[in-house]
Specification:
The chain contains no helices and 11 strands. It is mostly beta strands. It has one domain. The strands form 3 sheets. The chain has a 6-stranded antiparallel β-sheet, with no helix packed on it. A 3-stranded antiparallel β-sheet has the order 4-3-5, with no helix packed on it. A two-stranded antiparallel sheet has the order 2-6. A hairpin with an 8-residue loop joins strand 10 and strand 11. The two termini are 27 Å apart.
Length: 133
């Protein structure tokens, strides 16, 4: 299960209410979010024009309207992509606009969100998040 390791709450992201609930299947899953017209965090985005604003990695089940930290600059350890696949160290990581999936896949028009260091198949992988740079 992925988890946030390094995060500067004053400058490494922002807080926003969730547009939809986070269920138990998505706890510990790294996902990319955009913001809707009400300023709520939405997993993915309707189109590339909206842009991915940050990464979430929920630590518990959350209801719509709950406030979540959206990371724009930080580190996530024990990183697996949204589907649960281990990503090799030294890999650029992207977010899919339509689904919010965070993977090494570059098909379509994904947005760069960071890169991996350490790890790989035998060890925990660390994702260095750099969204919007």
């Amino acid at each position: 299960m992925s988890r946030i390791d390094k995060y500067e709450p004053m400058g490494g992201g922002f807080r926003a209410p969730l547009a939809a609930a986070i269920d138990s299947a998505h706890v510990g899953v790294v996902q990319a979010v955009s913001l809707n017209g009400s300023g709520r965090a939405v997993v993915g985005g309707a189109a590339a024009a909206i842009g991915i604003k940050g990464i979430i990695c929920p630590v518990r089940v959350m209801a719509a309207g709950d406030i979540i930290d959206v990371m724009t600059d930080g580190e996530i350890v024990d990183f697996t992509d949204t589907s649960g696949t281990v990503v090799a160290a030294g890999t650029d990581v992207f977010a899919a606009f339509a689904t919010g999936a965070v993977t090494a896949t570059t098909t379509g028009t994904p947005q760069y969100v960071g890169h991996t260091v350490e790890g790989g198949a035998a060890n925990a992988t660390r994702l260095i998040v750099r969204v919007g740079r």
